[in-house]
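Handout, page 2. Input:
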Amino acid sequence: MEKEQYLGVSVSSLTYEEIIADIKKRIAAGKKSTVIAVNPEKVMAANRDPLVKELINESTYQIPDGVGMIIASMLKGGKIRERVTGVDMMGRLLRFAAEEGHGVFLYGAKEEVVSKAKENLERQIPGLIISGYENGYVQDQSALIQKINDSKAVLLFVALGSPKQELWIREHMNELKHVKVFQGVGGSFDVYSGMVKRAPAFFRKAGLEWLYRLIKEPKRIKRQMALPKFVLKVLASR
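Output:
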């Protein structure tokens, strides 16, 4: 699988459609796949924390979730020309699951968030089978693993925040008999529950979702400083 490297972090150059097509083949072959979103902030974190870098690089698909990844690819002569966001990748995978008749399990977030996300998704995506869900505060992990196995879900979405969700996936992946696709989705359940509003379409299409969030939450400025630092480091590494 073609991947690009930025400051030692792998990034998949596949589009949404190419990832779905590849996942379909991997499911048919009985292979497990993991999806992780990569943005400049996460790349910078990976350069400070070897564990974060390890979790990213060992994933099957490191999707370019951030305009900074497109800028980096252009600077380095790569092929990435469109964002593949975590929340939209989840949406594509859910539609794929509905088309293929695969069961889905949602794990994470508050009870009112995950239950509402389940309700909304089942209403919005015809044929979607959400065969189980659990909030992120469950204490009995053995019971949770059993519940996921009993659901026979093929796709599992974990919303515990990064890197906790990726660590959980790595720890339990082999215990989950039927799950073939794992994605850590951060705050995506909040979006699908309707409790958090995404940026308007104009900002998303222009790759300026980060700017919209900054306007709405000025305190994010410290986090957003990762973008110029990342671009400068990429330029220095050319």
